[in-house]
Known about the structure:
The protein has 11 helices and 10 strands. By secondary structure, the protein is α+β, with helices and mostly antiparallel strands. Helix 3 crosses helix 11 (318-333).
Amino acid sequence: xxxxxxxxxxxxxxxxxxxxxxxxxxxxxxxxxxxxxxxxxxxxxxxxxxxxxxxxxxxxxxxxxxxxxxxxxxxxxxxxxxxxxxxxxxxxxxxxxxxxxxxxxxxxxxxxxxxxxxxxxxxxxxxxxxxxxxxxxxxxxxxxxxxxxxxxxxxxxxxxxxxxxxxxxxxxxxxxxxxxxxxxxxxxxxxxxxxxxxxxxxxxxxxxxxxxxxxxxxxxxxxxxxxxxxxxxxxxxxxxxxxxxxxxxxxxxxxxxxxxxxxxxxxxxxxxxxxxxxxxxxxxxxxxxxxxxxxxxxxxxxxxxxxxxxxxxxxxxxxxxxxxxxxxxxxxxx
Length: 334
């Protein structure tokens, strides 16, 4: 049974004034009677908290707590048809915008302990995760011939272990294409896998004073300009540290500047991992450790899929799916 006292405590942490301001800007309560945006938010958070598998579960669960609904800021439990209708029609960007507003306040309270780097740059981990959907039900979610999916392109704050940006696209969108719209913070460092080894994208980052540490593809063509001496205090898995220029005409046009290439030995997988970065002054140890920290976002995706309700959906429209994902992210902040 759902602990409604605990749920009401979670709801009380949410900034309702801020939510009302976003509702007013987006006019999501215009012509609405009874089931306003706040009730909609509480209903979808209840879906996450109680792991509801259907709209019926949300409606019946809230109806069973009639006497406690005033603590949640709602008058009465919504009907199944009302929840279904609003999931289909209420603008999902309301919940996305509210997530980012909450992130600036609740996100500061995160207490996540990990390796501390002796650099001043903000560390951001970039990756994507695919959420599979049944194509016969979610026909808008194009992915493969007989399979549907949406993809979450996520920029994770290393310090707080919370997403600072999420771009949700159809499953066909390549990782690098889903990364072009991410907000760029000057002097931050973006750490990513080889799927983001897009020289045009890296040039955009570098031109905006953003550092990057990205695993490069095996077919990269380059010329070594200078081989940096490996210091005695380096990590023993560091094999090479050099300054390079791209030699392919097409690649060089997309990224005309020099790059630094660091090769490291991965003992666990018995392979060499080759990294490129536009940061020339940090030690090779730091570059290596930054890439190693990328696994934190893999752990984040795994935990989100295990703990939050985003592997099955209570609505089949794109709007309903987006609302459920963004309210899951709000739940993660609470």
